[in-house]
Amino acid sequence: MRDINLAIFTRRPAFEKALHVGAPYVEPETQKRFHTYMDGAFERAYLTNNGPLVQELEKELAHLHSVRYCAATCNATLAQLFILSALDLRGDVLLPSFTFIATVHACLWQNLRPVFCDIRPDTLMIDPADAARRITSQTSAIIGVHLFGNICEVESLTELARRHRLKLMFDAAHAFGCSLGSASVGGFGDAEFFSFHSTKFFGTFEGGAMTTNDAELDRKIRYLRNFGFRTYDDVGFLGLNGKMSEASAAMGLASLPEIPRRIERLEATHRAYRDGLSRVPGITVLPAGREGRSNFHYLVTLIDEARFGVSRDILYRVLWQENVLVRRYFYPGCHAMSFYRSSEPNDYPHLPVTEDICKRILCFPTNLNNPKGDIDSIVGLLQRIHDNAERVAIWAESQP
Questions:
Q1: What does the pLDDT look like over 47-92, one tens digit per residue?
Q2: Range list of H helices, 125-165
Q3: Strand ranges (DSSP E) for the chain?
């Protein structure tokens, strides 16, 4: 029988170089602006410690997200830690299991107990009704997680927090530049925190930020990110070194002018994927920006094994052989990670929607050098896998 044109049979991948879901995309114009900013930093001999570039970036980001305050940090995890500390929380924090593990870890670092909530199957974000059922006298806060360029049910979570006198914050790592209706992300709840990792829509090499409209919260976080110093000689808080460097701020400032073009490019990529994947049975694309503005940075699909012909996990393995490095965000769910299962096995209950989505989700690369050609090739691969599902399944069974 003639070999199917798939790398699992031919050992010839469709792509010579790997296509990553989280590939940094730095425009030539961004690189030029970055060098100009860094020339100024070297001339000033001012490379860290709340330098002028950090302060300029904070002002730009506060304006972009329509908030009064923005405090830049060296990463998103420390931004979250500082918020949790500044709010002086105790007890339990409600949050979805369907998120990156750092969101949960930060709670434990603050001696807070994470209480996992299920998600809605249509949005993949925290289900406010499920969160409401998990509130007890020990609950002190809710963390909503905006995902894949879409925004949580902010209004329902805000009302829930108000009714039970809970603090409310949002993980906005996926939501830079996004909005819910006309309201920009950044000003929801008591505070929001962002990731500026190099693989995000907006990157500063490594970096993060906290945004808020609360002057006192902003003041505390600025102390906390600088070891707790209130003045040159006085330490008033148990702080850490969470400052952003001038180099990271330079990268952020250099990237800001490219945001409209990035969104335009990624929206076109998203549209091309949707059009192509609509012809492949068993693959559904998660809508982006259906209730506001999206940055279109993530292309998220759900795989229906019965219609597609093979499981999500077999498809995942086959595409990796083709150098299409799809990702199973956020498999298997934080509550199913070995650390959480082994540390408090009775604390992390069955979450049926989360567990179902974790078995079916697959995210595709979007930062492509040749979007039309690459997407056509990926769609062609998917069609061949579907058309030859029986042989692909036999191959999968033969693998160790």
A1: 999 999 999 999 999 999 999 999 999 999 999 999 999 999 999 9
A2: 128-133, 154-164
A3: 19-20, 69-73, 92-96, 113-117, 139-145, 167-171, 179-180, 183-184, 191-195, 208-212, 283-285, 299-303, 324-325, 361-364
Both 235 and 133 in a single domain? yes
pTM above 0.90, yes or no: yes
Provide the residue range defining the domain that includes 276: 7-21+259-398
pLDDT in tens, 152-176: 999 999 999 999 999 999 999 999 9
Count of all residues that appear for the chain in the document: 400
Same domain, 96 and 131: yes
Which position has the token pair 């249509």? 122
d(CA 216, CA 263): 34
CATH number at 280 reads: 3.90.1150.10
Domain end position, chosen among 218, 234, 257: 257
146 and 201, same domain (yes or no): yes
